[in-house]
Amino acid sequence: MTDLTHRRERVFFSIEVVSEGEVSTHATESFPARPSAKLFITDELSARPHNRHKPGAERLAVRQLLGKMVDAPDEVMPLMVAQALDLTQASASGLSILDDSQDPPVFRWQHLNGALARFEGALTPRDNSPCGETLDRNAPLLCRHPERAYDWIAAHDLVIPEVLLVPIRIGKEPAHGTLWVVASHEDQFDSEDLRILTELADLVAVARKMQQDKLRLQEALEQQAMIAREMDHRVKNLFALTQAMIEMSARHATSPAELARTLTGRLQALARAHAMPEQTAETQDQRPDGMNRAELTTLIQASLEAHTSLSDPGRVSCKGETILLGPQSTTSLALLFHELTTNSVKYGALGSEHGRVRVVWDPCDNELVICWKETGGPRLEGPPARQGFGTRLMQQVLRGPLKGKLDKAWQSEGLMVTVRVLRDRLAN
């Protein structure tokens, strides 16, 4: 990409028309960079005679443009710039589109035709340039020998007898670029050239608006398709997980009532996890694909509140940095904390009057380490004689998409559970 915002070797040439359809260049002396009172001469256009214009050519150009707008919108702007060259009999034409993401802002030259075509894609300064002056004035501009005032033009092999520029704007938005033509000699352009260029610039604006609308539509359709695929994936995962829970719960339940009770609790945990991203959409960030994400603290607190009615809020504490969760990790961790809370209420600290639970988490390299620590409950003598279904369920959900693992320590003062999951899996 050519960058015209910086100086380069000084080699100068002027552009002359030798015969119709031919352009030649010859070396000339360098002009010092200096402001000129005759730099902007737009008011001269109305006084110049016009004898080169062919209405039939304009009508043909408009028909061609309208046809492209219907059949090939992406080809409209290159065609317009080429028509600007032909209809004004200029030696060069092009678009300068503002890129204000750069610091400082710059113009990008696009769809160049004629003698300056080799500068396609070049960058030029937003300020201290004829295009910038056109945007500042928000009006067409005729500039004579801009290289005499703008040293960066002279420093890049350019001597320009005249350049006619018109701003490009979409609706009521500020102008975001210019359509310009370069003359072969001084006093070439007139008011008819200005009219033609202004009408073409209006069509350029329409074409750019069509391109923007097309791009937005494509992005919206792609995002919609991605969300549909993800929702389909989530539903399949929920069905698979529900089926596994039903089968495992049925094998370990001692009565239909126990099966109904335990299965209902787990299904409710799944339902809360499924709804949580949507419930927190207004306060949480979104993924690039548009799906909402839940936050770890909110998920843990929801799991605890759903299973306990604690009058002393100090009995449960959560501490850790903000961790955003994708739908799949939300479901897995919701089941995990549902099982931990249920077991604590039945056998551990939350089933005792003075029992407490502290949950802390901390990123460690590429992992997130979550520690669940119970105190104040029944004194533990060691691990249970057999592994319960809840433990197997927790291990199963962690081994899946999260690629995590779970360790339990039956300390005398209470159970401590350490969960490790890969951080890059949490956004899934």
What key phrases describe this protein's structure?
428 residues; alpha+beta; Beta-Lactamase; Heat Shock Protein 90; 2 domains; six-stranded antiparallel β-sheet; five-stranded mixed β-sheet; 9 helices; phosphoprotein; Sig_transdc_His_kinase_HWE; protein histidine kinase activity; ATP-binding
Describe the structure.
This is histidine kinase. Keywords: ATP-binding, Kinase, Nucleotide-binding, Phosphoprotein, Plasmid, Transferase. It comes from Sphingobium xenophagum. Residues 230-322 form the Signal transduction histidine kinase HWE region domain. The chain has 9 helices and 15 strands. By secondary structure, the protein is an alpha+beta fold. It has 2 domains: 13-216, Beta-Lactamase; 253-425, Histidine kinase-like ATPase, C-terminal domain (Heat Shock Protein 90, 2-Layer Sandwich), CATH 3.30.565.10. Strands 5-4-3-8-7-6 form a 6-stranded antiparallel β-sheet, sandwiched between helices. The protein has a 5-stranded mixed β-sheet with strand order 10-12-13-15-14, covered by helices on one side. α1 runs antiparallel to α2. The longest helix has 62 residues, at 191-252. It is elongated and about 105 Å long.
How many beta strands in the DSSP annotation? Answer: 15
| Highest-level CATH class of the largest domain | Alpha Beta
Q: Provide the low-confidence segments as ranges.
A: 7-36, 278-291
The strand order across the widest sheet is 5-4-3-8-7-6
The CATH homology group name of the largest domain? GAF domain
Cα Rg: 35 Å
Binned, the helix content reads: 40-55%
Assign an overall shape: elongated
H/E element string?
A: EEHHEEEHEHEEHHEHEEHEEHEE
What's the CATH architecture name of the largest domain? 2-Layer Sandwich
- CATH topological fold name of the largest domain: Beta-Lactamase
User: Per DSSP, what share of the residues sits in E-state strands of 2 or more residues?
Assistant: 15-25%
Largest β-sheet summary: 6 strands, antiparallel
* Structural class estimated from helices and strands: alpha+beta
Average pLDDT rating: 78
In total, the number of domains comes to: 2
User: Helix count?
Assistant: 9
How far is the N terminus from the C terminus? 38 Å
